[in-house]
Design brief:
Blueprint (H helix, E strand, L loop, with lengths): L13 E7 L10 E3 L3 E9 L4 E10 L5 E5 L1 E3 L4 E9 L11 E11 L2 E8 L7 E5 L8 E6 L13 E5 L18 E2 L22 E2 L4 H6 L1 H6 L2 E6 L3 E3 L7 E7 L5 H14 L3 E6 L36 E3 L3 E2 L16 H8 L4 H8 L3 E4 L7 H14 L4 E4 L9 E2 L2 E2 L10 E4 H13 L3 H13 L2 H5 L2 E3 L8 H5 L9 H4 L6 H20 L3 E5 L25 H16 L2 H4 L1 E6 L4 E7 L5 E7 L5 E11 L8 E6 L4 E5 L1
């Protein structure tokens, strides 16, 4: 029998309960709005002989220490210290947000005691009593602007990511650029890949996918429950991946040009599909209207002349051949996003963001958000919201974004003026680790901490993913990536064995089940739903094999899509992990009206019995009778409505 327990934060004789005036179930969060009032109730065993206590709070932005005195109340063997204060009392003057860290100092008859965070306790947020602060961590608290109104139309949807050149050709002809190489073998062609010493390597081999082709498959996307379409870059560029922007104000003609985008937007909106574009603003291509290294554009580029209007956008060391570029990749000269002219070009009244948002683009995914100036991100979000009050801005961040430090500076993504949410790589990594190791503790700890740190509106809009154009295909990953240390020549032709594929497919079903049940927006990387394989770029970017799909896996994705859309609790319900013992992971989603969903995955060696607080039924068992008890065998997973 598996215990289904809540989060008690009990450890070493202390418990911390957090309540909030404005945030229901405030104990599940460490992020609160500026207008909120918080109460911390610290329960301590009377054996510690506590007399009084203080809450020591450090403001991260300027290091200021704020001390809150507690009210002491003895109570039959359990003493209480209560701290109540307004969030605005913590913030710096004229500010309405901030990041804070805190612990408690207790005055006892036996001397001072410190109550802080035990990172190695039974729960990652376990409190710990200690006679010194040497090995004690601080709790985190974030205050965000109360005026922040996140978009509400994205939560509850399913996202689908498309690398346009590799998804579907379509029946409509598009022009072939003279310097492009066309790979005619859609099904068996291998994307060219870089080999050390190959100085002539260029990402200019295309398979022929277009936006017209995407339009022809929109009904297929709807069959998966898709409500958001995320497109990798589509602006004019030399490469097949388009992260080397050549002209922000035009859609690449090989993808169908501006007309194809306009038609795609119209057809998506007819089907209630929102569209998110990839915004690549940290760098451009060297073969671009702005840099123009090869003189292909009818402009005076920064490479050609210091008098170019685009010269201040870039950071030259020794003009023209030495300049800062993205991670040293010379074809991707880096842009200074602090530059006012570049900021206006992207975020101004008639800038890039306004232009495409007016067309009907609903959201922006910001490539390498960590490398963009914070003022630039704020201006970009303002520009998008000016055109569409419900536009969303989502950032590529690979870690916990609530306290991220990038290039030596703390980022302020979720304080109310910058990002609405981010890509959820921590969840991806935790799911893969659980499925390949059987140890549920890391998944428990990751979700517990992540959804605690993030404001609920951020969690509801997280881009929950299992794979992208930057990672190995999830099926290959879940098979253990058996050739991970071998060379690219081997990876280019590698395929999973029948046994590896069978194991990985079962794991993928569990992975997508978890993805659909967690707070956030589940995202399907094109082809994962039908079992595409592949190692890292470019082998994760093969064409979608139309007509050769894994029908069983596709049917499961469609089933989960329906479950996701039919159960509102999966869109915006509260989340609580319950247990992680012996390879079994359980959790629940719930609301303030008493509705609950309990999820469970059994990767252990024995069958288990799930005991619900009230009668419930499995979402996978049609017409199953309601019951308090449900049996789950090894390798099985389920979601119970109660």
């Amino acid at each position: 029998m598996i215990p289904i327990r809540g989060i008690e934060n009990i450890h070493d004789g202390a418990k911390i309960r957090v309540s909030s005036r404005n945030t229901p179930h405030g104990e599940l969060f460490s992020s609160f709005d500026y207008a909120d009032t918080l109460t911390f109730d610290v329960e301590i065993s009377s054996r510690y002989l506590v007399k009084s206590g203080k809450m020591i709070i450090f403001r991260d932005d300027d290091g200021v220490c704020i001390i809150q005195n507690g009210v002491f109340t003895p109570d039959y063997g359990i003493d209480h210290l209560t701290f109540t204060f307004d969030c605005k009392a913590l913030c710096a003057e004229a500010e309405e947000d901030g990041l804070f860290y805190y612990y408690f100092l207790l005055d006892t008859h036996l001397g001072p005691l410190y109550l802080g965070l035990d990172e190695f306790g039974p729960d990652i947020l376990s409190p710990k009593l200690s006679q010194s602060t040497d090995r004690l961590s601080k709790f985190q608290l974030t205050v965000y602007r109360a005026t922040h109104q996140p978009p509400k139309r994205f939560a509850g949807r399913i996202m689908y990511q498309i690398f346009v050149d590799r998804f579907h050709k379509g029946s409509r002809e598009v022009p072939l650029r003279k310097d492009a190489v066309m790979e005619e073998d859609w099904y068996e062609g291998i994307p060219p890949y870089y080999r050390p010493g190959d100085e002539k390597f260029q990402n200019n081999t295309f398979f022929g996918g277009t936006l017209w082709g995407v339009i022809e498959k929109l009904d297929y996307l709807k069959s998966l429950g898709v409500g958001i379409l995320y497109l990798n870059p589509i602006f004019t560029a030399f490469s097949n991946h388009k992260y080397d922007t050549g002209d922000y104000m035009s859609v690449d003609s090989m993808f169908g040009g501006d007309k194809a985008l306009d038609t795609l937007l119209a057809e998506c909106h007819k089907r209630d599909i929102l569209v998110m574009l990839d915004g690549v603003f940290n760098h451009t291509g060297d073969d671009s209207l702005y840099f123009n290294r090869y003189g292909k554009y009818d402009s005076v580029g920064a490479y050609q002349s210091k008098e170019s209007p685009y010269y201040p956008w870039y950071r030259f060391i020794n003009h023209p051949d030495e300049y800062h570029s993205w991670w040293g990749v010379k074809v991707l000269p880096g842009v200074d996003t602090n530059n006012a002219d570049f900021d206006r070009f992207i975020n101004g009244e008639d800038g890039v963001i306004s232009h495409y948002t007016r067309k009907g683009v609903d959201a922006w995914r910001l490539d390498v958000a960590d490398e963009l100036a914070e003022g630039f991100i704020r201006n970009l979000r303002s520009a998008a919201r000016k055109e569409d009050a419900d536009a969303m801005v989502l950032g590529e961040v690979w870690e916990d974004a609530s306290y991220k430090i990038s290039y030596g500076k703390r980022r302020h993504y979720f304080r109310g003026q910058e990002l609405d949410s981010v890509m959820n790589y921590p969840l991806k990594n935790a799911i893969i680790s659980y499925l390949t190791s059987g140890d549920a503790a890391n998944l428990y700890m990751t979700t517990r901490l992540l959804y605690y740190h993030y404001p609920k509106f951020v969690s509801d809009n997280l881009m929950n993913l299992l794979g992208t154009h930057d990672t190995c295909r999830i099926l290959t990953e879940l098979a253990g990536a058996p050739l991970a240390k071998d060379n690219k020549d081997i990876k280019a032709v590698a395929k999973l064995s029948a046994q590896e594929r069978k194991m990985a497919t079962h794991r993928l079903k569990i992975a997508y089940f978890l993805l659909c049940c967690m707070p956030g927006i589940p995202c399907i990387y094109y082809g994962d739903e039908i079992g595409m394989e592949g190692y890292e770029d470019p082998f994760n970017r093969r064409p979608y094999p139309w007509g050769r799909e894994d029908g069983e896996l596709l049917a499961f994705y469609r089933q989960m899509g329906k479950i996701r859309l039919d159960l509102p609790l999966l869109a915006d319900g509260y989340y609580m992990p319950l247990s992680h013992e012996k390879g079994v992971f359980t959790f629940k989603r719930f609301d303030d009206k008493g509705n609950e969903l309990t999820g469970a995955v059994n990767l252990g060696k024995e069958k288990i019995e799930i005991i619900l607080g009230k009668k419930g039924s499995s979402v996978f068992a049609d017409n199953a009778p309601l019951s308090y008890r449900h049996t789950l065998f090894p390798g099985e997973f389920d979601l119970y409505i109660s």
